[in-house]
Design the sequence.
């Protein structure tokens, strides 16, 4: 186990507590940079989606994890980013310009959503953001002169400074990775400066934050704007990756997927956004596997345990029918959320920390280390 | 003109007069305690000063400036810090983060600068960190720096609340029952610290307190309230012997 001896105030400010982090993150970065030359094109495509989802996850963490304002409207922010890109691209606006414009516009709309949200907390805020998402979805479907309605919009190949960057090229992956890394570093910077601390203060006690001089309304709006802007940037990449966007891609289910990203990853650290993104992106291949291979495997197992040929065939067909049920994805999402909330509220990253601590302290690990204890009942009077 | 002044301050909840035309003044550098039975309106006065409640009528002046209509977050910027009766710390943050929030009123950096963590932000952070360390040393909080609030015992949290208020470098500090829930030893420490606030740091203290021994030890003057009205004002012993105060506590 490593003991940190802090000798300078810098030690509390710097991003990595000790030099070991440079090694581990350096290796990770090297692997990510080498990935296009090692992985299949399918996995690369998944990795691009992980980057995009993780970027949205970080954005949502700023708002939900650190400022404590729940949002089920992030699919709408993503849509606004994506459509801004698609619309401006029609007029031959260069990529850097519409990329920034999409972030800016989404940020402004995010701030506008933040204002009415000032008076709402908890479940009411969730309802308000859902309504916002539904309104955006409807506008996208009806405003045909701009969005082309339900027919959707096609997005041309990204061209960066005259060089075409096809959506399945390594260059596009590097672009997504760069956006993700910049987002993470920027967010970490924010969190170690006054704004980030004000966010956390608002999450934990608005009354106390206010009496410490934090303009709660202003910082909530800031949090909404930052979160929306980052989601807008991700939206541009999302549009390019899919090369075609239509309103039914940005439904409530997508917003729920983003919530799952942070809920499963862990809401208290940016690691959670990345781990959650990996999880959610890998669900689709898992479902495909379930659909294609599971029936055969289960039937095979049944056959080896003495089920007759007809019995095995009927098992195979019923498993296949189950795996291709329509609402299966939604049901799996629901079950996953419930299991995590009940058994691992700290998410995958929380579990990782526990495993790490177990080995650091071996054999002295105590189960209660992470147990949250309530010492007193907090007054709700001044809310 | 006095340093801090409340004039005919009233707070009515419907027909209930929680605070009823209370006037008092605090001189610079004194420790003024507000005492009174439960429900006398002591904490309400604090919540009026820190603008959690809006007064029904009356005015509040600080350094000859009318602060009655100031937004709540500006009160701290003026140099008035407070603690809460039922600890209001940021539970899921470390002690250090909590104290650094206390420095919020001194932060001057812009959002985009913080996003890039420019050298100016880094320099500011170091200044904040140094100030916080001074407060940590003042209140003997060294063992708890990196601990999460949610894992700390009540007595320590109480001290951290005081520390957070001190980190904002206030001119006037409002202590809402600083000794509630503390044991005898911790109360002793608290009384020394409150005297030190005045003597070493030159901070004016306005305090709500039930523990009469603490009140006697630290206060220069005492105000007794009951049913939102001022019963008596003066030195601790004068107020304690005042017939109305005795009647309010013992019933007569």
Sequence:
């Amino acid at each position: 186990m490593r003991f940190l001896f802090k000798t300078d105030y810098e030690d509390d400010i710097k991003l990595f507590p000790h030099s070991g982090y440079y090694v581990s993150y350096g290796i990770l970065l090297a692997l990510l940079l080498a990935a296009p030359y090692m992985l299949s094109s399918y996995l690369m495509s998944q990795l691009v989606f992980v980057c995009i989802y993780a970027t949205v996850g970080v954005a949502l963490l700023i708002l939900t994890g650190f400022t404590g304002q729940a949002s089920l409207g992030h699919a709408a922010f993503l849509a606004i980013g994506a459509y801004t890109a698609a619309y401006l691209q029609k007029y031959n606006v260069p990529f850097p310009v519409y990329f920034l414009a999409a972030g800016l516009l989404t940020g402004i709309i995010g701030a506008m959503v933040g204002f009415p949200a000032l008076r709402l907390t908890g479940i009411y805020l969730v309802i308000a953001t859902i309504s916002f998402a539904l309104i955006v979805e409807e506008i996208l479907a009806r405003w045909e002169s701009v969005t082309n309605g339900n027919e959707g919009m096609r997005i041309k190949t990204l061209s960066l400074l005259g060089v075409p960057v096809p959506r399945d090229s390594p260059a596009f992956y590097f672009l997504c990775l760069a956006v993700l890394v910049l987002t993470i570093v920027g967010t970490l910077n924010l969190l170690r400066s006054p704004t980030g601390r004000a966010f956390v203060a608002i999450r934990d006690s608005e009354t106390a934050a206010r009496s410490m001089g934090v303009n709660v309304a202003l910082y909530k709006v800031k949090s909404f704007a930052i979160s929306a802007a980052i989601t807008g940037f991700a939206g541009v990449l999302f549009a390019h990756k899919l090369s075609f966007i239509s309103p039914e891609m940005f439904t409530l289910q997508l917003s729920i997927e983003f919530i799952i990203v942070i809920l499963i990853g862990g809401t208290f650290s940016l690691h959670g956004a990345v781990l959650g993104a990996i999880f959610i992106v890998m669900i689709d291949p898992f479902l495909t596997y379930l659909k294609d291979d599971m029936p055969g495997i289960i039937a095979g197992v049944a056959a080896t345990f003495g089920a007759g040929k007809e019995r095995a065939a009927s098992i195979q067909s019923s498993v296949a029918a189950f795996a291709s049920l329509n609402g299966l994805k939604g049901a799996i999402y629901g079950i996953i959320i419930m299991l995590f909330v009940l058994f691992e509220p700290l998410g995958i990253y929380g579990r990782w920390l526990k495993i790490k601590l177990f080995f650091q302290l071996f054999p002295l690990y105590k189960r209660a280390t992470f147990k949250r204890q309530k010492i007193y009942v907090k007054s709700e009077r001044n809310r | 003109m006095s340093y801090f002044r409340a004039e005919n301050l009233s707070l009515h909840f419907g027909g209930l007069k929680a605070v009823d035309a209370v006037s008092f003044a605090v001189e610079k550098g004194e420790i003024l305690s507000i005492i009174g039975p439960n429900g006398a309106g002591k904490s309400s006065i604090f919540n009026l000063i820190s603008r959690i409640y809006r007064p029904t009528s009356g005015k509040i002046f600080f350094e000859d400036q009318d602060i009655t209509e100031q937004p709540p977050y500006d009160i701290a910027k003026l140099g008035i810090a407070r603690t809460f009766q039922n600890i209001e710390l940021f539970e899921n943050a470390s002690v250090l983060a909590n104290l650094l929030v206390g420095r919020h009123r001194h932060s001057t950096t812009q959002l985009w600068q913080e996003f890039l963590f420019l050298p100016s932000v880094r320099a500011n952070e170091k200044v904040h960190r140094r100030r916080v360390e001074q407060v940590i040393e003042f209140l003997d909080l060294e063992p708890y720096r990196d601990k999460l609030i949610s894992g700390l015992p009540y007595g320590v949290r109480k001290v951290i609340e005081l520390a957070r208020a001190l980190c904002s470098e206030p001119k006037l500090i409002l202590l809402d029952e600083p000794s509630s829930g503390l044991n005898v030893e911790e109360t002793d420490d608290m009384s020394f610290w409150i005297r030190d606030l005045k003597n070493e740091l030159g901070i004016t203290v306005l305090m709500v307190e039930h523990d009469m021994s603490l009140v006697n030890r630290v206060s220069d003057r005492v105000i007794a309230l009951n049913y939102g009205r001022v019963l008596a004002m003066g030195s601790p012993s004068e107020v304690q012997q005042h017939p109305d105060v005795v009647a309010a506590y013992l019933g007569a």
